[in-house]
Design brief:
Length: 482
């Protein structure tokens, strides 16, 4: 553990490289599908495997998605970009090179807003993913007996989004990643599932004495597959580098792997420089020309972005906090929109979604689409409430029951006799009974203890199991007690 004093001495600098898997139907240069979780090597083909004589053909859907991302980040989409070969030898990359983009990427510049600052985006480029190695068997020389190659993921389109080194704390890095994920999900190009690897992040970290302009030497941390891991890895690396520098050592530029179990980063390999990859223009693909008209076509299809959604919710009367939380959960936001389309008051619906519903979903670790609460049934419940047929408390109980059972709101109210009692005669009877049963409190109230009024209301509600119309109860009690 490094002291607070040392943390005050050194500032951290963070830049993130995020790989987002684009949700295209087929691969970036081949015709196979790219669904997650298929039988190994069933979603791969000749182009992806790099068999002799085959030629890559660029998937237009992947280009459209990359342009949409660029527009969402406010990037410049140059008129021309091109593809390059990046040479690797990995068993899960049978071609021996990855088709990527180097000096002419599809998106240049742009930014993402987080709460306290704007994080610059350097560039975003298209590339193909590699396959996966599955290490099997337990007692081999290097920990596993043998490794299997699964090429299903190979050739899946990736957009690598490179940030400027603009972040200074792990909180900022997390927030940037969350905002980026939210944008990618709302524009429909990536499902943003960190655990399944459809969004992956390399964190570049360095330290420098506060006040110093020049950046220190960075390390690159791989293998972080949750928001929590990202923050832990960054904080760990910050302290590790401070300790090295304080002991008079030098941080080595290298790639390190995060180990979530031990909570440490460990050296994986020295960091290659760009020239090590021997990039050269991909001879099998023409440079890509993107016309103004093409860009404008895509711009027309831009869905509402998260920041716009938050503003819209605020204009409907939601607080900043509620608008933020709902927007951060895309399924919940879509649900709210459908419910308000049916004429339900947005604030009423939000109270329930932010309260009972959200608590239930968190507890069960599911999203609202996976719950038993349908839009139609929730609308029924809200209409029962808005029309005064049931009380707020009854509705809160019912929404939880519906989340668990999926039962119809109207039927539940009928079966359980939960509708509000508005019949004055019936309520008056109960009011009189309560007054008779509590002579002492009546006397105290009459001699000036006004606060006891709430006690009488509570008693009447208890007798009616919360079903009495509160306004009628108030009126009748006032009359009978005066
Ligand atoms: P490479 O592929 O070699 O990692 P990239 O240009 O793709 O290079 O990405 C470099 C990333 O590292 C960027 O996100 C950038 O902001 C970040 N970065 C560069 N220099 C530093 C530094 N000194 N400290 C922290 N992050 C850095
Ligand atoms: Mg990189």
């Amino acid at each position: 553990m490094v002291s607070e004093e040392l943390k005050n001495k050194y500032e951290m600098v963070i830049g993130l490289e995020v790989h987002a898997q684009l949700k295209t139907r087929t691969k970036i240069f081949g015709l196979e599908g790219c669904k997650f979780g298929c039988e190994p090597n069933t979603e791969t083909g000749t182009v992806t495997m790099g068999l002799p004589g085959v030629l890559p053909v660029l998937n237009k859907e992947a280009v459209n998605m990359a342009i949409l991302c660029g527009l969402a980040f406010g990037s410049k989409i140059p008129e021309r970009c091109k593809f390059d070969r990046k040479q690797y030898f990995y068993p899960d990359l049978p071609k021996g090179y990855q088709i990527s983009q180097y000096d002419e990427p599809i998106c240049v510049g742009g930014s993402i807003q987080i709460s306290n600052k704007t994080i610059g985006i350097t560039r975003a480029h298209l590339e193909e993913d590699a396959g996966k190695l599955v290490h099997a068997g337990a007692d081999g020389l290097f920990g596993s007996a043998y490794s299997l190659v699964d090429l299903n993921r190979a050739g899946t389109p990736l957009l690598e989004i490179v940030s400027e080194p603009d972040m200074r704390t792990s909180d900022e890095a997390r927030e940037y990643m969350e905002q980026l994920r939210s944008i990618l999900r709302y524009i429909g190009v990536c499902d943003g599932n960190l655990e399944e690897g459809s969004m992956r992040c390399d964190a570049n970290i360095s330290i420098r004495p506060r006040g110093q302009k020049e950046f220190g030497t960075r390390t690159e941390i791989k293998n972080v597959n949750s928001f929590k891991a990202l923050q832990r890895a960054i904080d760990y690396e910050y302290e590790r580098q401070i300790a090295i520098v304080e002991e008079g050592g030098k941080v080595v530029q290298e790639t390190r792997l995060w180990d979530d179990n031990s909570g440490t980063t460990n050296s994986m390999r020295g960091k290659e420089d760009a020239h090590d990859y021997r990039y050269f223009p991909e001879p099998d693909l023409m440079p890509l020309k993107i016309s103004k008209e093409w860009i404008e076509e895509i711009r027309k299809k831009m869905p509402e972005l998260p920041a716009q959604r938050i503003e819209r919710y605020k204009s409907l009367g939601l607080s900043q906090y509620d608008a933020d939380v709902i927007t951060a959960q895309m399924e919940l936001a879509y649900f709210l929109d459908k419910v308000t389309d049916e004429g339900v008051n947005p604030k009423t619906a939000t109270n329930f979604l932010m309260g009972e519903v959200n608590a239930f979903l968190k507890e069960e670790k599911i999203n609202i689409e996976e719950s038993k609460l349908s839009v139609e049934n929730f609308v029924k419940l809200m209409k029962l409430l808005e029309s005064g047929k049931i009380s707020n408390n009854i509705a809160k109980g019912l929404v939880v029951e519906i989340l668990k059972t999926g039962k119809d709101a109207e039927k539940l109210v009928e079966e359980k006799g939960l509708s509000v009692i508005s019949d004055e005669g019936a309520i008056l009877e109960i009011v009189k009974r309560v007054i008779e049963a509590n002579p002492d409190n009546v006397a105290a109230y009459k001699s000036g203890r006004d606060k006891l009024f709430g006690f009488f209301v509570g008693q009447v509600m208890k007798e009616t199991k919360g079903r009495a119309n509160p306004q009628t109860v108030n009126e009748l009690l006032k009359k009978e007690l005066s």
